[in-house]
Specification:
The protein has 187 residues and is of the alpha+beta class. It has two domains: 2-28 and 108-185, Topoisomerase I, Chain A, domain 4; 36-103, Gyrase A, domain 2. The protein is 58% helix and 16% strand. It has a four-stranded antiparallel β-sheet. It has a two-stranded antiparallel sheet with strand order 1-2. The longest helix has 34 residues, at 109-142. The radius of gyration is 22 Å and the shape is elongated.
Length: 187
């Protein structure tokens, strides 16, 4: 029976990976609130390679409309500002001495609605990912049919267990989406 345990452990791992992908994807959607996560993974040319801002600076949000980036190496201030401009986040960094300030403008109602649509697209992509994982794992389980010591009841039990895990993960995706939509529609 250890084969089924391996398959279900693989399922858990793949579902949690898919959930992480969805979380990261949703984190890139701007909500009109200043959050360090908005810029922390932006790539910047530093020391001859591409590095993320979180590897190069302290990122804070002193209030809901401002992100403050304080590089540990002051010579990187303009490189960080350039990286943020090139990231396509529709935000304008301002170099202020040894820091980079980013004012986050409030979102218009129209823009909020566009972003809600984008969130729903990202959620749907996450659900497609879940369905792909589900069908691959289901095929692995069904491939156990006829193996020594594996009954039809075992197969049915594993498929039921798998479906329960997939449903839980899908529910988490829906909760993440509802949270993000609420955040977007709150002024």
């Amino acid at each position: 029976m250890h084969m089924s345990e391996a398959i279900l452990a693989n399922l858990r791992s793949r579902l949690s990976t898919a959930l992480e992908v969805v979380k990261k994807d949703l984190a890139t959607v701007r909500t009109g609130r200043a959050k360090p996560s908005l810029v922390e993974d932006v790539k910047v040319e530093a020391y001859g390679s591409l590095m993320t801002i979180k590897e190069l600076a302290t990122i804070s949000a002193p209030d809901v409309t401002l992100i403050l980036v304080s590089p540990w190496d002051r010579s990187l201030v303009s490189a960080i500002a350039t990286g943020i401009q090139k990231a396509g986040l529709n935000i304008q960094p301002v170099v202020d001495g040894e820091t980079v300030k980013i004012a986050i403008p409030a979102l218009t109602q129209e823009r909020r609605e566009e972003l809600v649509k984008l969130v729903r697209q990202k959620l749907e992509a996450g659900k497609v990912l879940m369905r792909t994982v589900r069908s691959e794992v289901k095929a692995e389980i069904e491939a156990q049919e006829g193996a020594a010591g594996v009954s039809e009841d075992n197969i049915n039990y594993w498929i039921t267990d798998m479906q329960k895990q997939v449903d839980e993960a899908t529910k988490k995706i829906d909760e993440l989406g509802a949270e993000k939509e609420k955040e977007l529609m709150t002024l």
